[in-house]
Structures are given as C-alpha cells and as structure tokens.
Amino acid sequence: MEALPPPPARILIVDDDESVRDVISVLLREEGYHCDTASGAEMALDMAERDDTPLVISDMKMPGKDGLWLLEAFREKHPDTSIIMLTGYGDTESAVDCLRRGAVDYLLKPPKLTDLIRSIERALAKRRIELARKKYQKKLERKVRDRTTELRKALKDISVTYENTLMALVSALDAREHETSDHSVRVVEYTVAIATQLGIKGAELEEIGRGALLHDIGKIGVPDAVLLKPGALTPDEWVEMRKHPDIGFNMIQPIPFLSVPASIVLSHQERFDGRGYPRNLKANEIHIGARVFAVADTLDAMTSDRPYRRGTTFANAVAEITRCSGSQFDPEVVKAFNAIGEQGLIRIKEDMTARRRAREASQMTPSHGLPAASMNPPEGEPGPTHH
Length: 387
Fold this sequence. Notes:
Blueprint: E1 10-14, H1 18-30, E2 34-38, H2 41-50, E3 55-59, H3 67-77, E4 82-87, H4 92-100, E5 105-108, H5 113-177, H6 183-197, H7 202-213, H8 224-227, H9 235-241, H10 244-252, H11 259-267, H12 288-303, H13 314-323, H14 331-340, H15 342-361
Parallel strand pairs: 1-2, 1-3, 3-4, 4-5
Helix pairs in contact: 2-3, 6-7, 6-12, 6-14, 6-15, 7-11, 7-12, 10-11, 11-12, 12-13
C-alpha cells in the first residue's frame, strides 16, 4: 500500500499589517502550505500553545511586543520552531542580532516569493534534521541507560560471584582446620567497624574488608603436620607457619580486584614496632588495613573459645589491646577501637550471632569462619598465642 504524503507544514505569519499577512498567506497557500495569521507577538505565542507550529514568519517591528521578544519567547517555550524574521529596514546589525538569537533567516520586506520559498524550505529542512538528531540522541540515551542498567546488574552479579568465591575459599580453609566458629565474619565486622571509625569508606573500606576475610588464605600452603599440630610448634615448624603471609600474597596478588587485599594479607602479621613478620615493617610502612586488622583479629582471638582455653571478657581484651598500643598496635587505630567501646564491640558480636541463627532457622547454610590469625608476639612480649 502506497504511503500517504505528509500533511502540509503549518506556517504562522505574524505582522501587525493585515495586508502583509494576507498577501504572504495567499502566496504560501498556493505553494501548498497551511497558513495561520496573528496580528501580534502575544497572539502568536498563544496560538503556538494550542497547535504545533513548525515555522513562524514574523515582522521585526510591531507595536507592543516586537519580533525580537517573540523570537526569545519561542526559543524558550518552543525551541523546535523555526523562525524567519522580516523587516522593512536593511539593517545589518539587526540581521546579525536576529541570527545570533536563533532565527534561521532574515529577509527584507516585501520578500521575493522565490527568496521566501527557499528560506522556508531551508528552515523546514534544518528543522527536520534537528528533530531527527534529537530523536536519535534520545534513542541513544535510552540505549545507554538500558545498557548501563544491564552493566550495573552484570557487575553486581560478578561482585556477588566474587564474594561467594572468596567465602568458599575461606570455608575450605575453615574445614581444613576444623574451625567451627564465625571467626572470619567477626574479624571482617570488627575490622570494618574500626576502619569506619577512622573515616575510611567506599571502595577502600570494601578492600580492607576483603583483606580481613582472606588474611589467612596462605595457610592452604602450610603442611597439615604444622597447621593442625595440637601442641606447641618447634622453631622449624614456626619457619613453615610464618610463610603463610607470602603464600597468601602470591596466591591472590595476580587477581586485579584483590591487589589491595593482597597487600593486607602480606602485612597482617607485622607489628607497629617493627618486630612482626615477614618483612619487619613498622608504623606507616604497614598497610592501614593490616594495622586495623591486627586489632580486630586480636580482639576476636582473645574473646573466642578455643579447645585449649575459654575466651576472655571483652573488658580484658580491650585493656590488653590498649596496653599494647604503640608496640604491637597503631595508637591511632587503638584510639578508634576504643571509641567504639566495649558495649559497641559486644553488640557487633551479638548482631552477627543473631544473623547466623536466623540463617540456620531459615535452613540456609551458615557462614563458616577463617581460622584465627597468628598474633604471636616475639618471646617475652604480651599478646594471645595461637597458630
């Protein structure tokens, strides 16, 4: 079926001289255009509010609101309307001013029909191109929004997959060491709480949380005879145990999104006074995430039950960590830790316990924890001792 031709373009002719309006409208109707007329700028604007107006031909000089006022009003309220200005004066400055304000053409009165038709055709063609460009731009913006939404969802799915993979690795290590508590989850929560108190947020906070979660991942490379030994380790066995930060770092450092957590894994056994391992770093040489983790891990190690001892109270743990400020721990981190307060720390643990019980009640697999980190100080120094 043959497509119907588009309806004739509607042209609004604005002039305070009725004879001018009549002559132009008659000539343009004979050329196939649909014409309406207005005797003034405000009347023209009212008519444009009621009907779509692709093109306006307006006199420059009119009583009351003039052509320039009308031009500005259309640019503000009907920016897709093309406007041709007419004037009885050959004023170059006025012509430039009209074009600068958005008119598509400027003709002297009375315009030659051929000049007027060419001007109308150019104006309508330019309008069609501009409308097509805007339509394409909107379509493109809509596609970009849709793709952005899809990308965000995909990234979120990837992030969830990453986190699930990390938890699977941690759970595998827990199972190997027969760890049944929520140690890794608690350490992450304590670490994030302290880091937040220090003003750390956003991506940096997330990376520190991942570092805390994966701190002992290198123990996968420690022999069972050493890792699972129930008694004290020999000097040679301690050499093997102390390799786990390097092993963990080498495992995850090649993974781009774990590059920062890898630095925390490598440094998590360092001490603020430089007497830790594997590189004897001290103070700010140690990654801030590792300095925060050291406090969080010691808190959980001291307040959690072990097969060989009962956990101590939070009050005792806070006092011991505070005592070791400046030697084992960063004083600024300890200050942030103390700002949370004993009751705040207890509440974090209680909230985690409540969430675990809720998961168990809903028949979801509860999270297992990482084994406790080695926070053993050099001989003669205070602090909890565990593998």
